């Protein structure tokens, strides 16, 4: 069914890395969500009114909030496709994250209201008229929401959309909450226990839980979370595929919304190679990254000395000293300035967060280790980098 809907409503749906295709997929999800949730809301409101069940009515309002969420998602994808302008040179793709945050706020607000209604029903319980038509409505709702969960999960994974995956998680929670409401009706019908208010309160808690989870997922990229390991590895694999690249470091990825990612990276090349030729190869890597992975990559060229036995030996000694301290420590941009009474070793060191504020101690250990190993005086000139930017 998912592939059929993609074929019918998404032009060129196989080109999932195309921003326009991504927007069309998001619109499809929003449109299907609006239709299905309004249909479920109408059915449950009728069932809740006929039975007098606050839990069923609460579940109906939850579906109404889901329909509103789908509208927000639809608008968010529409705004996110707007091109870059003078005021927003990196585009508007973060509107997708903002729409997810708006959905979360709406869900949390409705969850609080439903919790209040359910508490009133717990304090003042009333009998629920549970019947076969009501049960059929709830069973049908579970089936529809289960399909919507699978539908949005497939679309979310297809275009790597956190918003659509959050929508799928919300549908999963709806399956659970509606099942709880159905169980409450069956239990009351069999035992005459008036637990409708308690079940309605549980539904409200699930709605709140879903809203808070979606809020966390959408706030994180807005705050500047780290790039996914898969994306980092993709960039590294592309750069490392060039035989002239001897090493890389300081990879930073900036996310301005899905399809609008910018990255910067330093690559090391043999200083004896022609600089213009190195520059040309770097240009080709940047173009490939944009063409194949839709990432705007900027590469900084670091020429390094290759084949000097003294420099190579000192670099190996420094790395050995650091590995003995912590295997996560690594160095790059290694240079040496030999003098008459001392030698300067100059390099960058990547320091994990757990060793932050220990820079002076690390510098001292490197200097002492080199001096003891070689019987000469060494000074370490170190630039410390965050370990997250490898």
Task: Give an overview of the whole structure.
This protein has 390 residues and is α/β, with parallel strands linked by helices. The two termini are 43 Å apart. The chain is elongated. It has 11 helices and 6 strands. The mean pLDDT is 83. Strand 1 (247-255) and strand 2 (261-270) form a beta hairpin. Helix 10 crosses helix 11 (359-374). The protein is 63% helix and 14% strand.
Structural shape:
elongated
Strand order of the largest sheet: 1-2-3
Give me the secondary-structure category: alpha/beta
Q: How much helix is in the residues?
A: 55-70%
Low-pLDDT residue spans: none
Assembly form of the protein:
single chain
* Run of helices and strands: HHHHHHHHEEHEHEEHE
Number-wise, the strands total 6
Count up the helices: 11
How is the main sheet built? 3 strands, mixed
Q: Round the Cα radius of gyration to an integer and report it.
A: 29 Å
Please report which band the strand proportion falls in: under 5%, 5-15%, 15-25%, 25-35%, 35-45% or over 45%: 5-15%
Give the N-terminus to C-terminus distance in angstroms: 43 Å
| Average pLDDT score | 83
